[in-house]
Amino acid sequence: MKRKPKAIFTLLTVSMLALSLLAGCGGKSATETTSAPTAAPTEAAAPAETPAPTAAATEAPKSTELEGKVVFWSMWSSSEPQSKVIDAAVAEFKAANPKVELEVKFTGRELGKLIKPALDGGQQVDIWEGDPEKLIGNLKDHVLKLDDLIAQPAIGMDGKSVKDSIIPSLMEWTKSLSTVAGIEEGYYAIPQQPFAVLFFYNKALYEAAGITSVPKTWEEFIADAELLKKSGVAPITFDDAYRDLFIGGYLGSAMGSDWVDQLVKDKTGEMWKDPIVLQFAKDIQNLTDKGYFSKKIAGSKYPAAQQDLVLGKSAAYLNGTWLPNEVSETAGADFKWGSYQFPTVSNGNDKGGQQGLNFGAQALLINKDSKNAAAAFELVKYLVGKKAQESMVKDAVAIPATIDTAWPAPLAEAEVAFNNAKVNMPWGFGIDNGGDFSANTVIPVFMELVTGKLKAEAYVAKMADEAKKFYTGK
């Protein structure tokens, strides 16, 4: 799943994230409407330790008091496992709130295109979901501030409030998005389906090559690549959908995402002459010269690289935590998943390294003009309640948004990275922030380096020149 659109939240990541962020990315574009099931119910800041509750949970409205119509637009298609979890949560909500008329639309990934015109036109959409990093900014005139509502008790979380039941880093991340959007600081989205961007690797291939621990530094990464190559497997792969993660991952690990953002927006081209860029170019040239990249990498089209990973043709692939779910049919139940953060790059500025991680989540937002905001938020509580989040783990191999909820086995090492990170890096670690310059120059010239068409010094000179030409007069 590609979490940030280019020509794609093809997450997230997220898409951290999934980031599922982003959970699989396939989906129908046509909207699919379902009536609420009537079955009886069955019984972030950075990742950190669970804090003590900030206040006692505020009593929610009694179920019998809620009535009226609520319309929920989901970003999933009705064929995806996430929709089945939603259906079950909706059934429980409906059984507990019989006076509420509930309409659920599984719009698929078309939601991003459909939601703004619908809200601008006054169409009733009380709840919708998607990438809050985009939705809060694009729909800031429509989003409801949830600060008071999140003090209500969460569903199935032993008296914790909604706010205290969600992974703290995710809550603080969504809060920070209000400042970016230029609206009053607060919580305008409830995170669900987190994601993180990591190297995913085939443990069986690493073990066969004699690798007993994951690399933490670039030097260890290179040493492992040599062992993998000697074992007869391509050490590293990626495809056209995720090229940005590799160049962004290296430069972000060295210098942090703020520096990378400045690099791709530098109108003079002089930042491309920084010694770290030449170091990057030499390190990529080394990967190419030693044959550590897959031989297919020049023309690799999504989803070819991820299939090569699970088929044992390549050993490691930089992607999001939605990956195990996307390739589950090909990988099978016995595939040995592993993951690790982008290795620490030397000679940086101490703003990068493994303190930073690209993570995020899909999220639920409520219309500030909703006539039934109380009932809408009650449904949100079921969707992010413990039972629904446990079902996301089991049925969609997704990261749970709730604290004290076990992660899926294929993402066990991802949980460690998520909890150890101190800084939330943006998608691509900032490398995509140059817009057209990033898409049409930064990534294509990077591929010239990867494929051996450019040597390191020539790469630096070309990028400095191209940046200056692109930004002249702008």
Automatic annotation (TrEMBL):
It comes from the Bacteria. It comes from Paenibacillus psychroresistens. PANTHER family: ARABINOSE-BINDING PROTEIN-RELATED. Residues 30-62 are annotated as: Disordered. InterPro entries: Bact_solute-bd_prot1, SBP. The keyword Signal applies. Residues 1-23 form the signal peptide. PROSITE patterns: PROKAR_LIPOPROTEIN. Residues 30-61 have a biased composition (Low complexity). SUPFAM superfamilies: Periplasmic binding protein-like II (SSF53850). This is Extracellular solute-binding protein. Keywords: Signal.
